[in-house]
Amino acid sequence: LEFERTGGIASKKKGHKQADKKVEEEVSDEVELQIHGVEKPSVWRLYGVQFILLPYSIGKVLTWEICWFWRYRVKKLPYAWEDACYLTQTSLKISANTWKNIDESRKEDLVTRRLWEKSNMERYIAETRKESKRRR
């Protein structure tokens, strides 16, 4: 549509098309295709490299688990925003990419509902079911 509006393609009724290379390049630069599941190959994805980095990866996960346990189980601190987002994302079973695409107001609403707690999650599921029945 943008290409037709800028005059890159003449009217379909006339039957002939004019391709303005400058406009075509501008439009193609603006349009970015997001193809999920197909990524550029990386050396870090090779099994041999991942096997070599396994001790480092295990250490990193263990450090994260210990810090989490210390902060939120022993000290009983309130959850930080990133940690509350992580808990909400995992309780809703949403992928990281999907979570990134949710607008900030929706994220804030979901986090403030404290959906990682079982009773709050059950209440949220009941509300969403009621809303979906109402829309039908």
Automatic annotation (TrEMBL):
Gene Ontology annotations for the cellular component aspect, listed alphabetically: endoplasmic reticulum membrane
Subcellular location: Membrane
Segments traversing the membrane: none
Span list, region Disordered: 1-23
Cell membrane as UniProt keyword: no
Any GO BP: protein folding
This protein's UniProt keywords: Chaperone, Membrane, Transmembrane, Transmembrane helix
InterPro entries assigned: DNAJC25-like (IPR044632)
Source species, domain of life: Eukaryota
Signal sequence extent: none
Principal subcellular localisation of the protein: membrane
Coiled coil: none
PANTHER family, sorted: DNAJ HOMOLOG SUBFAMILY C MEMBER 25
Name the record gives this protein: Chaperone protein dnaJ 50
Taxonomic source organism: Dichanthelium oligosanthes
